Amino acid sequence: MKIAVKKKKKRIPIPQKPPKVENKPKTYNRKKEKTITKGEILEGTSFDE
């Protein structure tokens, strides 16, 4: 007779989503800032040859 060993299932943590914020003109758009700075950095490095 085989003894079945119950394996504990690893609990996958559910990523918590931040509360959805409507695009308000007063709120600071961090994502847009990141893309802008990334673009500037990439442009800067490409011209420094």
Structure summarized in a few sentences:
The protein is mainly α and 49 residues long. It has one helix spanning 30-47.
Describe the 3D structure.
- This protein is mainly α and 49 residues long.
- The chain has one helix spanning 30-47.
- The mean pLDDT is 66.
* Largest sheet, strands/sense/barrel: none
Beta strand %:
under 5%
Order of helices and strands: H
CA-based gyration radius: 24 Å
Mean pLDDT, rounded to whole units? Answer: 66
- Unreliable stretches covering 5 or more consecutive residues: none
Total of helices: 1
**End-to-end distance, in Å?**
72 Å
**How does the overall form come out from the CA principal axes?**
elongated
Q: Which secondary-structure class do the elements indicate?
A: mainly alpha
Tally of DSSP β-strands: 0
What fraction, in percent, of the residue positions are helical? Answer: 25-40%
Walk me through the topology.
Elements lengths: L29 H18 L2
